[in-house]
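User: Please predict the structure of the protein below. I'd like the answer in structure-token form so I can feed it into my own downstream comparison script.

Assistant: Understood. Taking the following sequence of 243 residues as input:
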Amino acid sequence: MLRIVCFAEAPADAKLGSALGDRVMTEEGPDWVYADLLPDLRAWTGLEREASFAKWTDLKKHPSPRYIGHPASGPRGTDYAMAFKALSQAALIARDESDALAVVLLRDADATDDNRAGLPQAVAEPRFAELHVVLGITDKMREAWVLSGFDPCSKAEEMQLAELREAIGFDPTREPQRLRAPDKAEPRHPKTALARLTGGDPDREERCWTEPSLTQLRERGANCGLAVYLDALRDKLLPLLAK
């Protein structure tokens, strides 16, 4: 079995990230991989096997590893220390794990100036090369990925999307990365735009990542980190299914 240790900010982020991972494995994996077979092939966990994911804030409970010096590429960026700690904990699991193991790191770019540059720096550390790390950085936040899969399914939703396009000057389902307002009161904030289109209905949101094709999600999510994440899932996880 493949164990996937997932780090995320909240349950909603982990739910989205793992659901997309399962879709990639079933739709782009070997022919013998079916959705009904997935529970026997993979397990999404946190640092504890019983958990479905690990919250970034929970890393405070674990001892901090030591690291010395700077990477050759220059000073460490945002979240380097946190990612280093997460991967160090995952490496301890891998040392004693009999199953194949991969690590998924999910993080919002949010208000950072460097797009969480420390995350890929930590992933590139040679000591973590065997962890099969999948990095998913959402620009600006999770809602941008969800909006990439929104298609109106009623006249009312068509009207809502048309009104939102008029208000902000572009289509948020085609260019979700342009939703960069810092204030939730503004229509250009990702959470506000998604709530306006889905009515805040979690089931309607979920349809945004379960119904569109992966091709559509890659095309619309090309500039918000979604396409990069889907490609990383394919490249890192699929080879491990046969192990």
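That's the full token string. DSSP finds ten helices and five strands in the chain.
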